[in-house]
Amino acid sequence: MGNGFIVKGADVAIEAIRSFPSTELVICGPYKADEVFWSTYKSEIKKHHSVKGFITIGSRAYWEIVRYATWQFHFSAAEGCATSLTTLMQSGVIPISNRESGLMVEGQGVDIVDSGNLVQDAVLALHQATSMTTQEIQEARTCLYEKAPRFSQVQFRLQFIDLVKAWEEKLQSR
């Protein structure tokens, strides 16, 4: 998740995971970079056995988690397109995310529908995800492997260049 854990929904994830005692939540990112989050949720994280944290992104432990993880939970306040979301999608980790993450994952994961109650919305999305059959999980992962490369930073750069060129052409034609 990087730093800015509250903006990225880690607080919502911690609240929601209480309804799923057999599901483990691993928080990835440097906790020291977000002192407000750490000071607020430190005791909750330490006492709640389903919440594990913090794992350094890119570390050996991180890649072991990615290797075995089924879902990633990304409940962002606002991002253009969350690279933490798309990077894990390329690894076959199924996203559970909201529109504010910058990516609707229809058919490739679980979209969190905003009803105004963030924690309840997250619980409903987690319930939908944990109710997926093995076949549905495999189909979603296959879809991710096929479609996720289009969400890379390279693809974003190429699409942005095309957009700027089209805009320049339009301005020149006036």
Descriptive report:
This protein has 174 residues and is α/β, with parallel strands linked by helices. The chain is built from seven helices and five strands, in the order H-E-H-E-H-E-H-E-E-H-H-H. Strand 3, helix 4 and strand 4 (94-98) form a beta-alpha-beta unit. Helix 1 packs across helix 5. It is globular, with a radius of gyration of 17 Å.
Gist?
With about 170 residues, this protein is an alpha/beta fold. Helices cover about 50% and strands about 10% of the residues. It has a single domain (about 10-150), classed as Rossmann fold.
CATH fold node name: Rossmann fold
Extended strand count: 5
Reading side by side through the largest sheet, how are the strands ordered? 3-4-5
CATH first level: which class? Answer: Alpha Beta
* Outline type: globular
Parts with pLDDT < 50 across at least 5 consecutive residues = none
Could you name the CATH homologous superfamily?
Glycogen Phosphorylase B
Total domains: 1
**Portion of residues in helices?**
40-55%
Distance between the termini: 44 Å
Order of helices and strands: HEHEHEHEEHHH
Query: What is the gyration radius calculated from CA atoms?
Result: 17 Å
**Which range does the strand content fall in?**
5-15%
Kindly report the oligomeric state of this protein: single chain
* Nearest-integer average pLDDT: 81
User: What is the level-2 CATH architecture name?
Assistant: 3-Layer(aba) Sandwich
Structural class: alpha/beta
Number of helices: 7
The major β-sheet equals:
3 strands, parallel
